[in-house]
Specification:
Structural class: alpha/beta
Number of strands: 18
Shape: globular
Number of helices: 10
Bound molecules: zinc ion
């Protein structure tokens, strides 16, 4: 079987791998779309703390079940890639998504950028029947955004400010809008990302420094993003950090105290967040075309990953088994987007 493998250093390539096996608790899935994200780029750059060379990447997986399990053969499913230990304190308190020994498909275990992947039976979530695999392909990053917006305690009519218009930042802004925000702004410097945000009818700004936003989300993982949070948030408002930081960053604690602000982290997603993400997709409130700039084959994936590392792509999806011809609505989207969709 073919799979996208990180072979060490900065090399990523399509390799032939052994077919994965199934058991009572692990079922086989044939991935149809797999998203590439920052975590994958961290792996490919050799900077990921846990990934080992030889790993099949891909943790944003939508595909069809192989063989009957609790779902019939061929059911379209989202694969939750989080593998919790079940024993640590977060796990015992029902927060397996923040497990102290969390492992991921595509990082610690073979991922979904492959013709087949073996996944825990409990990790598959049925996708609403009227959604196509492509329409559901963003379920994983969208779940991350749903959690971040939840953590911000955004209320209907509130002003949400998002820092960073990468895929997660864009999705946070779109979730905020769908959740009834009265105003949504997004700060970004990169021209390609500003265009994507504007095409999604978002209000693009250079930054917000007037303590006006009820809720602020940093989706950059950049020290400047962390610094800007407390300049944007209003008195009593909430600032959420979802972009992954390497560690230390500067935050003006006097602003935190004077503003009586709440600074919160947001990590991964719960099954409730996944359900909300699927509902947002099923009701058409979030459209993959708002953030996806390229859909590539497995063979084209190494080149697309290179473009991502250079910052010339938004969100990239790998199409593993080409689905039925695209729907007619794909045409009007072509004018709204920065890059080509195949
Ligand atoms: Zn990801
Ligand atoms: Zn745990």
């Amino acid at each position: 079987l073919k799979a996208l493998v990180w072979s060490g250093q900065t090399e990523i390539e399509v390799q032939a791998v052994d077919a994965p096996s199934s058991s009572q608790d692990w079922v086989l899935v044939r991935p149809e779309y797999v998203g590439v994200c920052g975590t994958d780029l961290t792996i490919v750059s050799g900077a990921h703390l846990r990934a080992k060379p030889g790993i099949v990447i891909g943790h944003e997986i939508v595909g069809r079940t192989i063989g009957a399990s609790r779902l019939p053969e061929g059911t379209l499913v989202f694969v939750n890639p989080l593998l919790d230990c079940g024993a640590c304190r977060p796990c015992r308190s029902g927060a397996g998504h923040a497990c102290e020994r969390l492992r991921l498909l595509g990082v610690d275990l073979p991922g979904g950028a492959a013709e087949q992947v073996s996944v825990p039976a409990r990790s598959i979530v049925e996708i609403p029947s009227h959604l196509t695999a492509l329409q559901a392909a963003l379920t994983e990053p969208l779940s991350v955004a749903v959690r971040a917006v939840r953590q911000s305690h955004l209320q209907v009519g509130d002003y949400l400010h998002v820092v960073g218009a990468g895929p997660i930042g864009l999705l946070c802004a779109l979730v905020g809008r769908a959740a009834g925000a009265g105003r949504v702004t997004i700060a970004e410097v990169a021209p390609m990302r500003r265009e994507l945000a504007a095409a999604a009818q978002l209000e693009v700004v250079d930054g917000v420094t007037d303590h006006a936003a009820d809720a602020v989300i940093d989706a950059t993982g950049h020290p400047a993003g962390a610094r800007s949070l407390l300049q944007a948030v209003r008195y009593g408002g909430t600032a959420v950090m979802v972009g992954m930081h390497a560690g230390l960053a500067e935050v003006d604690l006097r602003q935190l105290i004077f503003g009586e602000n709440t600074l919160r982290g947001s990590r991964n997603y719960t099954s409730k967040d996944v359900a909300a993400a699927l509902a947002l997709l099923a009701t058409g409130q979030i459209d993959y075309r708002s953030i996806v700039t390229a859909v590539v084959t497995l063979a084209e994936a190494p080149e697309a990953v290179r473009r991502l590392r250079q910052g010339t792509e938004g969100k990239v999806l790998i199409s593993i088994s080409p689905p039925a011809p695209a729907s007619t609505t794909d045409e009007d989207s072509a004018s709204r987007k920065a890059g080509p969709i195949s």
